[in-house]
Amino acid sequence: SGCRLVLGTAGLTDPYGLLRARSAMPSPDASERLLRAATSADIVAFDAAPGYGRAERVLGDVLGGSAPIWTKVVADNVESALASARSSVVFTRREPLDLLQWHNWDAATGETTAFKEAWRALANSGLARRFGATTYGSEAAVAAARSGLFDCVQVEWNLLNQSALRGVLNVAASEGVEIAVRIVLLQGVLADADLPLPSSLIRLSAARNRVVEVARRHGMLLREFALRAALSQEGVGYVVLGAQTQAEFEDLLSIVA
């Protein structure tokens, strides 16, 4: 399908997904090794956000100007939007930013005067080369693709949640908007069949067990089946992968290969 790989950094400096339950955090040295390994691999960008702890700063410190960085903005007005983007420029050492995304955008946000004014100011600021949005659900994804505002829309997709991508693909293709899928391992739920689910996610046990059974019939581990399924989705330009250690990242790369 021609998917390109993007390394998500939500877990780079803060616990993320099921790691929160295990309290396992990579050391600064481990994070640096992961990033350096990623720059040597077939990774086209690194996806960060101001809300991901120190991720932007770590990317800027380790990568310098050597690789594209995607980041995000959440703002209430023009001033806070520009301040957020300018901080990202400083922390990531990128000017202009490679891709600036409105974090958790939906159609209701798009109708507000505050968003329209802030987005217009960002578009005219010269602070980013390209613009995007991250979304949840089919309705928000379709609205983002139709808006004419975004070059790239991030959509959640995994084997237990396929509807948003299914709804947006035709619209994105007709509008010339790139699609990136994220949460392909469902924050760890689809990474390891033996990883216990917390009480908040126990409702997913039966569905995960069904996926495990299908994966086994095809001679695959759960994470291999989940990742290969994401990579096989037609019309998807990018798959955003999360990893906390170099070993975990290299395991995912072996699946991709």
Helix-strand topology string: EHHEHEHEHHEHEHEHHEH
* Unreliably modeled segments: none
Tally of separate helices: 11
Strand order of the largest sheet: 1-2-3-4-5-6-7-8
- Terminal CA distance: 14 Å
Notes on the structure:
The protein is built from eleven helices and eight strands. By secondary structure, it is of the alpha/beta class. The chain has an eight-stranded parallel barrel. Helix 8 links the parallel strand 6 and strand 7. Helix 3 (55-63) packs parallel to helix 4 (78-92) and helix 9 crosses helix 10. The longest helix has 15 residues, at 78-92. The two termini are 14 Å apart. The relative contact order is 0.15. The mean pLDDT is 93.
Set out the fold topology.
Elements: E1 4-8, H1 19-22, H2 28-39, E2 43-47, H3 55-63, E3 69-73, H4 78-92, E4 97-102, H5 107-111, H6 113-123, E5 128-134, H7 138-146, E6 152-156, H8 163-175, E7 178-182, H9 205-217, H10 222-231, E8 238-242, H11 246-256
Parallel strand pairs: 1-2, 1-8, 2-3, 3-4, 4-5, 5-6, 6-7, 7-8
Helix pairs in contact: 2-3, 2-11, 3-4, 4-6, 7-8, 9-10
Summarize the structure.
By secondary structure, this protein is of the alpha/beta class. It has helices spanning 19-22, 28-39, 55-63, 78-92, 107-111, 113-123, 138-146, 163-175, 205-217, 222-231, 246-256, and strands at 4-8, 43-47, 69-73, 97-102, 128-134, 152-156, 178-182, 238-242.
What key attributes describe this structure?
single chain, 257 residues, alpha/beta, 11 helices, globular
